[in-house]
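[09:14] KT: can someone run the structure on this one? pasting the chain below
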Amino acid sequence: MTRVLTGLAAVLLQAQVVELGSRRELFVDRALIERMNGAEIRPAQPREAGPVLRLDAPWEGPFSGYFTVIKDGDLYRLYYRGLPAAGPDGNAREVTCYAESRDGIHWIKPKLGLFEVAGTRDNNVILAGQPPFSHNFSPFLDARPGVEPGQRYKALAGTSRSGLHAFASADGIRWRPLRGEAVIPAPDRSAFDSQNVAFWSESEGCYVCYFRSWKRIGDVNYRWISRTTSKDFLAWIPPVEMDFGDAPPEHLYTNQTGPYFRAPHLYLGLAARFVPGRRVLTPEQAQAIGVDPRYAGDCSDAVLLVSRGGNRYERTFLEAFVRPGPGPSNWVSRTNYPALNIVQTGPQEMSFYVARHYGQPTAHLSRYVLGLDRIASLHAGYQGGEVWTRPLRFQGRELEINYSTSAVGMLRIAITDAEGKPLPGYSLEESTEIVGDEFEGTARWRGGSDVSKLAGKTIRLQIRLKDADLYALRFRP
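[09:31] RB: done, structure tokens below
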């Protein structure tokens, strides 16, 4: 018999109810999940689609890095550091380069004529002769309501010596400083030496900056991530270190954290995991690929970070999201670093980008492909499994689901009350078996798909899977 919740139990239940509204949720963490039996959260497997940008201009070269991709309407913009030879952070040879695309796949380097570099103005350079800012210039498209037209684009840049300085632009190409001094002073001389990323957070109502820091644990000084926030992009609160829960400490060279474009309350980070001193190449292999000898003794890959605001990351998966892959060129120091942001490149496709072959004449940017919203999934194999959500409240009329099954696989979804008792008309027995592969499918029961009479009430979802994946859901308005 179902127990009626009273007193303290009822209060505790209300405190843990997830106010879902009509927002989209991706199964990249356990925020919606209370328990699983025979099921797991499984990361997607990105498909490498090949090089999209060769870093072969005289002002680019083997040490180009710290890429940012921004989709602004129908135009994709790409920003990155150009550096033909290794040198100290913030040196005068560093420039900020720009490329653009109409599809996120085919890129051009426009001749902008803004700066003379390597004896010519026929180049794609948008910042030069201003060390140290081209070391890690990292822009974003400001989504804050009411932002001034002249500040639609903003950026942070700087090193441990300069601190982070603020820049703004109306067109994303011509930039100006917003202040003559650092807006985020370096907390010590060992921070800010990689890409430091910022954005306007719709869910937190402020600007957020995630930046490189260091954290000593035992005898190891780890490359870490810290965070600070601001209401106006100029005055920032004292930074705090990010918390990774019970995940083991690892060197995270870049964090590449930003709001997911179809669910901005979810911050996704494609971080570069660096393994110092883990040498894979023999001296002969290093010589054969032409890598700078100083960059043959380490390796790196990419991992997925998830945050819902505050100073907490979830390491749902400790495994690599992007492995280095075959060939010695992918096993050198500071290669396989992802660009900032995931962007949509087709009706059912999205892309992210990874810098490959660092420190080598073949340095380039490669594209990786995922299905829309398909970053991770609730998964069960042939034997089947079941998932119960936490208590939820929603607004909407239909339950939209992004899913995939095998020919013999299936999903069924029940809606229960807060205690897990099936609601009449929405039990597993009354649910329509879901088979196929859809990005915007609809859950149905014998009485149809309308769930609007349950809107605003506290419910749970009971999800049964067999040889199937459920990537995302939302209650469609």
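[09:33] KT: thanks! The chain has two helices and 32 strands.
[09:34] RB: yep, looked fine to me
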